[in-house]
Amino acid sequence: MRYLNAHWLVTNLPVVENYFARRAAPRSGMRIFFQDEHNLVLPGGRDVPPSSAPGVVPSIFGGEETYLVRIANEKQYRTADVVLEYNVPNIVNIKSSGRFSRRFSERIVYCPPIPFDYSNAGGRSIDVLTNIINPREPRRASLIERLEAFAGYRNVQGVYDLPGLRSLYQSAKIIVNPHQTWHHHSIEEFRVLPALSQGCLVVSEDVPLRTHIPYHEYVIWCRYEDIPDVVAETLRNYGRLFEKIHGPAGGLAELLASMLAEFERSMDRVIAADAARSGASRLLSAIRRRLG
Prior knowledge:
The chain is an alpha/beta fold. The chain has helices at residues 13-21, 74-79, 88-96, 102-106, 138-147, 162-170, 189-197, 227-236, 238-246, 252-291, and strands spanning 2-4, 31-34, 40-41, 53-58, 66-69, 82-85, 108-110, 126-130, 153-155, 172-177, 201-205, 220-222.
């Protein structure tokens, strides 16, 4: 078994490792690709492969424009035995486009980035948190400047290890999630979901296909322009919102557990199908050898 693109930012890696720790290893040559790119990208966005075709999902900005289906690593999609997608909207954009074969799509599995057990504990000494790697990106730099008006705001960089991330998220009341560009709009789930699982209130810029996200009702969504005002309102109502989202009646812990269980069922199906194909291929090869 080979992991492809399993770097330190793919926070769904522990989910996969835990899955295989409880199961027999798949066939030795199986290739599992961790997909980490934005798929929902508007025309004109950077780093868009020429083969990217228009999809059918409308832009969050309105009008008639639709998102491209950006496949940044199409070779890996076609040659890996399992493609682990980190968010559902990417998958919906691929399947709804009608551009890809059933075989292309059926190897894709949604693997939610939930590397930690759910916890709503923590001292919460940071009022407002961002963990933006490149604060010089113009769109994010402008937002950071506006968030600096909050006395309890911090942009924390360089924390990538899982214990460090868990401690960071347990120390924050609110985490803010803006898109990096005006074109790339897949939900940044590698940030949002781990933070939500550790008791943060998440204020996120809106995303296409929002209702397809299993936990969308637990995120505070808004337009980019409105983020500072929504953060201020969230701080004023922090106790009530925390109880609504992270209180015992909220059901978030149960939802996250169900998402992990569904991932495991999906992996079981894809691996079983792979084993069946491999068995059929070996049988066909044996018959051909006998027929000489």
